[in-house]
Design a protein that fits this description.
Elements lengths: L1 E2 L2 E2 L8 H8 L11 H5 L6 E4 L12 E6 L4 H5 L2 E4 L11
Parallel strand pairs: 3-4, 4-5
Antiparallel strand pairs: 1-2
């Protein structure tokens, strides 16, 4: 798997969007609210899920889910829109 000029070892992350966000440094800044604090603030009226549904969604929020797995977010959604899995999307060449 690993030899000169090639590393064939790879890990498939179960939360690709989160891994990508961390790769580009997309994290809350000093004093900012994270997703859990935003969701529990009482100010959320609309939740738009793109495969990130590990938080408790306010019961009175309108939920739009975009995805391919039909996971927890899809079960809570008011509107479900189809989306390609990250393995189906074209990458950079």
């Amino acid at each position: 798997m690993i030899k000169d000029g090639w590393n064939g070892f790879s890990i498939l992350h179960t939360a690709a969007a989160r891994a990508g966000a961390l790769d580009i440094g997309f994290v809350p800044g000093e004093g900012a609210l994270d997703a859990v604090k935003i969701a529990t603030s009482g100010m959320v009226e609309l939740v738009f899920l793109l495969g990130a549904d590990e938080i408790d969604i306010p019961p009175d929020a309108f939920v739009v889910y975009v995805g391919s797995q039909g996971d927890r977010g899809a079960h809570l959604a008011d509107v479900i829109l189809p989306g390609a899995a990250f393995t189906e999307k074209s990458g950079s060449t």
